[in-house]
Recover the amino acids of this structure.
């Protein structure tokens, strides 16, 4: 999928470049294409400089959290809920512990730990699957929730905003939190409808009701203040929560009497290794997106969507952020490149850039997750998994648009 997408970007750019040259008498289009390639390659290296520092810092703190047992603690807290949402999984089965640890790791932004834990969880669920070629109900629910972007700390979004010069990188913290909550809730409800899950179970109702109550109260508070105050509150909460979690990690490590400095350094080394492997992907996708923009192809697509939106009578400011949403289900690197390009093109704190960052943080690379998780256990018939996962993505996109108009318009 990624091969086709990347090649398609260049071929479409070449076609539009030829059109500009032959029919619009614009031979300079090829100079713009080449200049864009070099500009985006340079931008990739600039991003890596920030990545080296930010990822080593954050993965160092996260290693302390793992060693202090915070991920295991979250797993034990969530276990009663998942035991009821997956009734075919026996109590005490190792899959439940792995599933809860996977979601806990995702919530804390531990992507490097979440994926291997998730693959082990899928493998354990496969041992209970009566038809090894067909996805079971538990496997589908696990995958849909995994692909609904359940991340409470979008640190990488903050990092990219900081690199692009945002005076307050965490400005999108609350919008992303609200939008990703919507995508996860829709993903859960869609699977519950398809599988006839008993959501009226007291434990499930307590979790869903409690979450809805907290979010509802939070939204009610936001609705009672001005848009300027909402943006300021998002900024304050983003910085306060992020720093508070770092302090909590350190205090938990000190309480457990673990050598926090040594664990930080160990985790930071992993961050350095992760960074080195990302540069080729950044160069590849940013350059492809750059030539797509320079050829005029991306503008033609957006103008077509803008014309449709105007015909309906809606505001069109959200259209400039849609490339990120359209690419995200297929490729995380393409969506990330489009988000960065939007920041570059419109300004890091422009409405399209803020919306693009919110969409990036509240949606997931659905087809990649489907391929990796189901492919790891040989699943060929995935039933309603794709429909439910894409519905969750759509909810995240629509919620992002609504929240950003509320916060930033």
């Amino acid at each position: 999928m990624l091969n086709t997408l990347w090649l398609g970007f260049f071929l479409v750019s070449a076609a539009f470049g030829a059109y500009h040259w032959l029919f619009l008498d614009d031979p300079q289009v090829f100079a713009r294409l080449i200049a864009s390639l070099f500009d985006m390659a340079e931008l990739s290296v600039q991003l890596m400089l920030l990545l080296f520092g930010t990822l080593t810092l954050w993965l160092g703190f996260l290693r302390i959290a793992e060693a202090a047992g915070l991920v295991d603690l979250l797993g034990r807290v969530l276990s009663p809920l998942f035991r009821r949402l997956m009734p075919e999984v026996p109590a005490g089965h190792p899959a439940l512990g792995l599933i809860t640890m996977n979601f806990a790791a995702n919530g804390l932004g531990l992507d490097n730990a979440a994926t291997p834990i998730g693959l082990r969880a899928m493998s354990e669920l496969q041992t209970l699957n009566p038809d090894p070629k067909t996805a079971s109900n538990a496997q589908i629910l696990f995958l849909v929730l995994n692909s609904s972007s359940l991340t409470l700390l979008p640190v990488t979004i903050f990092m990219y905003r900081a690199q692009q010069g945002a005076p307050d990188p965490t400005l999108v913290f609350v919008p992303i939190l609200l939008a990703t909550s919507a995508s996860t809730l829709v993903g859960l409800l869609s699977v519950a409808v398809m599988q006839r899950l008993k959501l009226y179970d007291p434990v499930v109702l307590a979790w869903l009701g409690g979450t809805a109550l907290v979010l509802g109260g939070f939204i009610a508070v936001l609705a009672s203040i001005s848009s300027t105050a909402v943006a300021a509150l998002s900024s304050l909460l983003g910085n306060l929560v992020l720093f508070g979690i770092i302090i909590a990690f350190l205090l938990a490590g000190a309480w457990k009497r673990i050598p926090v400095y040594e664990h930080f350094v160990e985790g930071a080394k992993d961050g350095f290794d992760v960074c080195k492997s990302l540069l080729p992907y950044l160069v590849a996708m940013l350059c492809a997106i750059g030539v797509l923009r320079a050829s005029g192809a991306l503008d033609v697509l957006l103008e077509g969507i803008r014309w449709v939106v105007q015909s309906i009578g809606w505001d069109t400011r959200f259209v400039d952020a849609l490339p990120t949403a359209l690419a995200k289900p297929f490729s995380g690197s393409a969506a990330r490149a489009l988000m960065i390009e939007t920041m570059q093109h419109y300004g890091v704190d422009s409405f399209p850039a803020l919306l693009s960052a919110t969409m990036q943080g509240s949606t997931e690379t659905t087809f990649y997750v489907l391929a990796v998780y189901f492919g790891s256990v040989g699943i060929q018939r995935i039933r309603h998994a794709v429909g439910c996962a894409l519905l969750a993505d759509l909810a995240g996109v629509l919620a992002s648009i609504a929240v950003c108009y509320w916060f930033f318009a």
The mean pLDDT is 82. Residues 20-408 form one domain. Residues 83 and 90 are 8 Å apart (CA to CA). Residues 29-67 form the longest helix (39 residues).
